[in-house]
Amino acid sequence: MRVLLLLLSVMALTAVGQEKQCHGADRCNIGDRSYHIKLPDDWDGMTPLPVLMHFHGWGRQGDLIIQHQRISGHTRRRGVLLIAPNGRGATWDFWTSTSRDVPFAAAVIEDAAKRFPIDRDQIFVSGYSYGAAMAWRYACENGDGVAALLAISGTLAQTESCSQAPQEVRHVHGLADTVMDFPMGPSEDQTYPVKLWRDMFGCDEPKNEGAWQAVNWLTLDRHEWDCAKGAVTLDIHDGGHFIPHGWIGWQLDQLMGRPPQYP
Hints:
The chain has 263 residues and is α/β, with parallel strands linked by helices. 27% of the residues lie in helices and 28% in strands. It has a 10-stranded mixed sheet, sandwiched between helices.
């Protein structure tokens, strides 16, 4: 009997250890929900990790994100822990301030912090398409602990009223996007996609920083604002609905004080 009890105890401890270190294709379970993690290359197992929590697009799940070269291909080279929550029904509830996915995503970060050491000063929240709208919603309702919002081809209505905000906002959108249409402002105002944050941060007139490229086949036009609090950046390109090559890595490099590079 004692041998059996000892064996069961060892099996239980092993299961707990495996659950604690979930990553990659193995889901990290939290209640009846889950998320995925991608560890960076060459992590020493002790140094606190900057975090990028990325919300997947409609019809996807987090297992795609941790394999995506335009997302995890950049985080793993920069010492950043990638966290990819799974939306219910492969989508997100971002439509109102009562979103059930905001507390879920906040709980995901706390759960990940129990499994791996994280750098609380470098928590970045990102998303693509519907996931970008969810990232906006998260920042709008729970952004006080977020160093930067990195949104790709998806927003909320610019008339939303946010209770919280991240320290910085960076948004990229294609003028030819027909899935999550480029939110053009009155009189063809191309800076309208970030009006919500500009108003909230008390920003001045934009500075057009001109064209830049992470890769030579895609040119982006950058606008930046000086703000009373926070910072806002908008990148515009002539393309459609996609994650621009190198965009996430370029932003992470700049936010972490490194020379931008690709990949």
